[in-house]
Every structure is written in structure tokens, then in C-alpha cells.
Inverse folding.
């Protein structure tokens, strides 16, 4: 069985077979068909590629639809694997070979295409994130400008960005309300449409793994840093930053409105825990609760909307 690695760019797919050949295909529908015809002639163990700004999405879906075992690997994991195997140089061809090596020796979770409603929700979540980033920059820019004419122009940009954010918030809330399987998660105070949208579109593992595994996946689980007699401070590391950011904002709201989580936070603070450590603990507890409720409700689903 052969491990197959694909390095994806906007125009090209560089494909490597572990300890085998290398081919290039156009990153187009025609190129995808030719790739599948070629792969069908090989005994494929799994096909591994990594996120490339969305350029990988079409080929991922096409390979999955063709019945091939395809994986979208974590980019950091790929680079760490390359360094661990002594591959420090970086070209498209070498990257494809590293991915093929990973496909040969590691068992990775297979890609599962999101449902149409999840894809639509993910686009709105991404657009909202970009608008919020622009809002922050626009506000910083306005504070630094004194000229009246410039301030009027910048204020106009700021007003339009706020309208765009309000529009996206309304769209996200509407889409979330249309998915009955998400309603069970809203009973936890502090959990709003934005967090639900982020979880539904970026954490398909929610409800399918145990609480500890999900917390580690998101990056809110304390990791040990011990060696010999040394006992290091536990810290969170890695994970999915966008989910953590949304979870952080929801945790701040939950501290005001959810008695259980507020009491949990205050108990940690009374035991001498730093505020940030206690907030991360609240985030982790929220995620574990949501994971349990998602498991009971069967969320998220991979079927169509």
C-alpha cells in the first residue's frame, strides 16, 4: 500500500508516492479527474495534504467523493514531522514527499466533508472574523488621526464596518436557529450564536470524542512539562486558535450569567489561581459540557441541511 502526499498551490498539485514517483496535475476540475484516474491504478493507503488557504478544498472533496481515503493534516504537525526526519529544505516537491511519508507511517483521521449548512456557516464565520479584524484596525487608526477631513473619512469606514458586522451577526444567528441539533447547546448561559457557529463549522469532532480529547484538540487542556525531578508549570499549547478566541469571549459572558461557572471561577481564584488560568479552566469546563450535550444530541451532523 502506498502513502500519497499532495502539496497544493493555487494552480498546481504536486503529488508524491512514498519512495516512489512524482507527478504534477493542474488544480482544476480536469486536473482532479486525471489525478483520480492515476491514483486508481495504485494501491493507496491514504492521501495526505495540508491546509493551503482554501485551495485544497475542491481536491479534498473530489478525492473523498471518488472513495479515496483522504486526510487534511495539521500544518504544524507536518512541519514538525519534516524536521524530525531531517527534512529542513522546503520546496513543493519536497513537501509532497514529506506528506507521502506521513501518509505511509501515520494513521490519521479521515476527512469528512461538512454538510452544506456547515459550509455556508463557515463562510459567514470567516467573513465576520475578517470584519472584526478590520474594525480593530480602523478604531486604532481613528484614534491616531487628528485631521478633521481624515477623521470624517475614517469614521465613515468605521460606520460601514459596524453595519457589516451587525449584518453578519444577524445572518449567523438566523442560520444557527435553523439547525435544531444546535439548540441543546444554547441552554448553557454565555453560549451565543457566534460560538455555536464556530463550533459547528470548525469542530466537527464535538460530541464524537471524550471531553479531555476535545479540550486538547482545541488547545485548552493543560500539558505537562516534566523531566526527571523537574516539575514544570502546566500550560496550554497548540490547538485551534479561532475556537479558543470565541470560547474566551463566551467564558467572560458565562462568568456573569452562569452561576455554576461563576462559582467554579471564584473557587479557583480563592485557591490562588491566576485570573487567566481560572478563565482557561472555565473555557475548558464549558467545552466539556458542550461536548457532552453535543454527544447526547448527536451534534454536529454530516448529513445535508
Amino acid at each position: 500500500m502506498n502513502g500519497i502526499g499532495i502539496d497544493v498551490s493555487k494552480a498546481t498539485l504536486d503529488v508524491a508516492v512514498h519512495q516512489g514517483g512524482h507527478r504534477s496535475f493542474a488544480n482544476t476540475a480536469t486536473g482532479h479527474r486525471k489525478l483520480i484516474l492515476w491514483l486508481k491504478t495504485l494501491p493507496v493507503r491514504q492521501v495526505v495534504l495540508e491546509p493551503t488557504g482554501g485551495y485544497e478544498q475542491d481536491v479534498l472533496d473530489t478525492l473523498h467523493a471518488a472513495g479515496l481515503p483522504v486526510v487534511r493534516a495539521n500544518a504544524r504537525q507536518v512541519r514538525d514531522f519534516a524536521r524530525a526526519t531531517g527534512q529542513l529544505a522546503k520546496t513543493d516537491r519536497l513537501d509532497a514527499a514529506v506528506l507521502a511519508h506521513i501518509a505511509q507511517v501515520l494513521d490519521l483521521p479521515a476527512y469528512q466533508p461538512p454538510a452544506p449548512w456547515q459550509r455556508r456557516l463557515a463562510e459567514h464565520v470567516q467573513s465576520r472574523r475578517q470584519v472584526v479584524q478590520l474594525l480593530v484596525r480602523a478604531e486604532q487608526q481613528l484614534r491616531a488621526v487628528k485631521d478633521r477631513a481624515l477623521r470624517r473619512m475614517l469614521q465613515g469606514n468605521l460606520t460601514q464596518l459596524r453595519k457589516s458586522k451587525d449584518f453578519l451577526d444577524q445572518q449567523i444567528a438566523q442560520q444557527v436557529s435553523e439547525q435544531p441539533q444546535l439548540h441543546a447547546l444554547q441552554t448553557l448561559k454565555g453560549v451565543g450564536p457566534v460560538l455555536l457557529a464556530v463550533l459547528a463549522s470548525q469542530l466537527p469532532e464535538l460530541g464524537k470524542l471524550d471531553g479531555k480529547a476535545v479540550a486538547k484538540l482545541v488547545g485548552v487542556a493543560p500539558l505537562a512539562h516534566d523531566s526527571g525531578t523537574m516539575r514544570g508549570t502546566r500550560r496550554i499549547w497548540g490547538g485551534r486558535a479561532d475556537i479558543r478566541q470565541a470560547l474566551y469571549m463566551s467564558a467572560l459572558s458565562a462568568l456573569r450569567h452562569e452561576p455554576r461557572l461563576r462559582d467554579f471561577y471564584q473557587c479557583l481564584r480563592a485557591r490562588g489561581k491566576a485570573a487567566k488560568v481560572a478563565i482557561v479552566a472555565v473555557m475548558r469546563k464549558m467545552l466539556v459540557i458542550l461536548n457532552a450535550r453535543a454527544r447526547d444530541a448527536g451534534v454536529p451532523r454530516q448529513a445535508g441541511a
